[in-house]
Each structure stands twice: as C-alpha cells, then as structure tokens.
C-alpha cells in the first residue's frame, strides 16, 4: 500500500556543514496506516522526488487502535525501485 503523497510535509531543511551542498530534511507524515506498513519498502515511492537518503520523517501512525509517533530515516531513494526506510535509532 502506498501513502497519500500530499500528506507528507517538509517542515525543516538544513545544510549539513558550511561549504557543503549536502542537506537533510525533516518531514511530518500523519497516516491511518500501521507502522509496519509505513516501514515497508516502497511505501514512500510516490514521494521519491521530495526525499533524500538521511532525511528523517516523524510518522503519526496507528498501532493497536492508538496513534503512535515514530521517527524513521530514509535509507535509499533509487531512481527506480523502492524507496526504503528504517526506524531511526537514538544515538
């Protein structure tokens, strides 16, 4: 199942360091889908043009009938094939 692309909202973006063009973005994604569905490869394919590896998405998803909030990180954004994500572990 794919997400509704218009529900993914970028609310912050920053260059990693001075003199660099590499940037990361922070997104918000509210969804009625379960977190396992959100983490499935290809779930974010419809938003591939907005995403880069290293971006973080704060997801508001449904878990056991309750809304849960979980940060995930974008791990791959190939030109074709599935966009992949993983749970963002605390450092």
Any overview of this molecule?
This protein has 91 residues and is mainly beta. It has one domain. It is 4% helix and 46% strand. It has one helix and five strands. It is globular. The termini are far apart. 16% of the residues are buried.
Features:
91 residues; 1 helix; mainly beta; 5-stranded mixed β-sheet
Q: What are the SSEs and their pairings?
A:
Layout lengths: L8 E7 L7 E12 H4 L17 E8 L2 E11 L7 E4 L4
Parallel strand pairs: 2-3
Antiparallel strand pairs: 1-2, 3-4, 4-5
User: Which word captures the global form?
Assistant: globular
- Average pLDDT, rounded to a whole number, is 88
- Total number of domains: 1
Task: Characterize the main sheet.
Answer: 5 strands, mixed
Order of helices and strands: EEHEEE
> Span between N and C termini?
30 Å
Radius of gyration over all CA atoms, rounded: 13 Å
Strand order across the largest sheet:
1-2-3-4-5
Characterize this entry briefly.
This protein has one helix spanning 35-38; strands at residues 9-15, 23-34, 56-63, 66-76, 84-87. With 91 residues, it is mostly beta strands. Strands 1-2-3-4-5 form a five-stranded mixed β-sheet.
């Amino acid at each position: 199942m794919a997400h509704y692309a218009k529900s993914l909202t970028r609310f912050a973006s920053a260059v990693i360091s001075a003199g660099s063009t590499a940037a990361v973005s922070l997104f918000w994604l509210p969804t009625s889908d379960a977190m396992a569905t959100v983490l499935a490869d290809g779930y974010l394919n419809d938003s591939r043009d907005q995403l880069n590896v290293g971006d973080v998405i704060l997801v508001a998803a449904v878990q056991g009938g309750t809304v849960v909030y979980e940060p995930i990180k974008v791990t791959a954004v190939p030109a074709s094939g599935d966009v992949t994500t993983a749970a963002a572990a605390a450092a």
